[in-house]
UniProtKB/TrEMBL annotation:
Domain NADP-dependent oxidoreductase: 15-314
Family: Belongs to the shaker potassium channel beta subunit family.
UniProt feature coiled coil, ranges: none
Signal peptide positions on this chain: none
Protein name (record): Aldo/keto reductase family protein
Composition-biased stretches (Polar residues): 322-334
Highest taxon of the lineage: Bacteria
Organism: Microlunatus spumicola
Cross-referenced InterPro entries: K_chnl_volt-dep_bsu_KCNAB-rel, NAD(P)_OxRdtase_dom_sf, NADP_OxRdtase_dom
Record keywords: NADP, Oxidoreductase
UniProt-listed Gene3D superfamilies: NADP-dependent oxidoreductase domain
Ranges where the record places region Disordered: 314-334
Length: 334
């Protein structure tokens, strides 16, 4: 396992990070989830990402149980705040001071830890002054409940404004967590250049495009049983943008590229995002331990210019690169 600095900080994280969105507490049973976490540890992964909203707090509990007994100093544990938790009352979502300070306490309890290494704003909150949000995050850091702060799916302008406030408050905003894959490149035009300037690293989610880039979805063929595309709890909605014959046919053209390199399709997809020098880590998820070991095999893989060209030629104009696709809900979800 290779390690990278997170942004312009001194914190090193495993370049393959294990995340439990849409799996722990929801898609898979707790014992399988624990097996996946153990597989991640066995593969050398030290960085784990979750959020209080995943499975309405259950995912944090499962992760906390799975990591119990591990040396805390040898792990990097990340979580997030913004989306509704609990009964979804008027203050159970967003980035108000009330919700942030209450949420961090709940997350620490569920994760069975005194602090998280990174506390992230899961989306931008248009209904709360940014100054209030950043002050609350700064207080969380000063209380020792988080070491660093980050955000997720924020635009370049939002990153710049938040970074300036963080500097004024004397805390480190070091990361952004966007969706990024061969098929979804919207961070490249604006977010990545701004992040490089500000010293913010990307912790990217869905590097295999919710499983599409594994090649398991063939055009005109039935959906594999138990796959993300059949998950009515949210997975099918997320993957739907890629589930068309043009995309699925193009993805099949990547199989010889992966084969020539001795890689699985998933490894090729994860390795691709890691070629971006602003990417600090790629988040992988899993519903079985074997997937963890396979994805972790992408660590340290270098793709030369000819390989990157073959990938671009296979995908053509299919990848989305419109910067305006980076956005947060205009109103707080309920």
């Amino acid at each position: 396992m290779q390690f990278r600095y997170l942004g312009r900080s001194g914190l090193k994280i495993s370049e393959i990070t294990y995340g439990n969105w849409l799996t722990h507490g929801s898609q898979v049973e707790n014992d399988i989830a624990t097996q996946c976490v153990r597989a991640a540890l066995d593969a050398g992964i030290t960085t784990f990402d979750t959020a209080d909203a995943y499975a309405n707090t259950k995912a944090e509990t499962v992760l906390g149980d799975a990591l119990a007994g591990e040396r805390r100093e040898s792990l990097e544990i990340f979580t997030k705040v913004y989306f509704p938790t609990g009964p979804a009352g008027p203050n159970d979502s967003g980035l108000s001071r009330k919700h942030i300070l209450e949420s961090i306490n709940g997350s620490l309890t569920r994760l069975k830890t005194d602090y998280v290494d990174l506390y992230q704003a899961h989306r931008y909150d248009f209904e709360t002054p940014l100054e209030e949000t950043m002050q609350a995050f700064a207080d969380v850091v000063r209380q020792g409940k988080a070491l660093y702060i980050g955000v997720s799916e924020w635009t370049a302008e939002q990153l710049r404004e938040a970074h300036a406030l963080a500097v004024d408050l004397g805390v480190q905003l070091i990361s952004n967590q966007p969706q990024y894959s061969m098929l979804w490149r919207v961070i490249e035009p604006e977010v990545v250049p701004t992040s490089k300037e500000l010293g913010i690293g990307q912790i990217v989610w869905s590097p295999i495009a919710q499983g599409v880039l594994t090649g398991k979805y063939a055009p005109g063929q039935p959906l594999p049983e138990g796959s993300r595309a059949t998950d009515e709890k949210g997975g099918a909605d997320m993957i739907s943008r890629f589930m068309n014959d043009r995309v699925l046919t193009a993805v099949q053209e990547l199989k010889p590229v992966a084969s020539d390199l001795g890689l699985s399709m998933a490894q090729l997809a994860v390795a691709w995002v890691l070629q971006n020098d602003n990417v600090s880590a790629a988040i992988i998820g899993a519903s079985k331990p074997e997937q963890v070991h396979d994805n972790a095999g992408a660590s340290g893989v270098k793709l030369d210019a000819d390989v990157l060209k073959r990938i671009d030629e296979a995908l053509g104009d299919l990848p989305e690169s419109d910067a305006s696709q980076t956005r947060s809900p205009q109103g707080r979800p309920s």
